[in-house]
Amino acid sequence: MKISIITATYNSEKIIISSLTSINFQTYKNVESVIIDGASKDNTVSKIKKIFTGDLKIISEKDNGIYDALNKGINLACGDVIGFVHSDDFLASREVLSKIARVFQE
């Protein structure tokens, strides 16, 4: 089962690290990260490409706000389960996605 995590960003270079790190270090590995960046004017996109080590889809273009960005992410996601982790959020433990996958598999 694949889990897609969608993250909407805009000028998030200072806060995106904890979000992506929390996804990178999940024990559940069948995860894709879909990042929709609203054409940031800082180094958000380059920082994402340096930090994230897994399956990554990224679009950086002007959008019509966070809900437009999240809908773009949903359209790109390939996972059986889709979740959202915003650029200033993080997953509370390394086991979060494993627990979610287990519940959906049951």
From TrEMBL:
SUPFAM superfamilies per UniProt: Nucleotide-diphospho-sugar transferases (SSF53448)
E.C. designation(s): 2.4.-.-
Coiled coil (UniProt feature): none
Signal peptide boundaries: none
Organism: Christiangramia antarctica
Molecular function, one GO term: glycosyltransferase activity
InterPro entries from the UniProt entry: Glyco_trans_2-like, Nucleotide-diphossugar_trans
UniProt keyword list: Glycosyltransferase, Transferase
Record-given protein name: Glycosyltransferase
Source superkingdom: Bacteria
Sequence ranges assigned to domain Glycosyltransferase 2-like in this UniProt record: 4-105
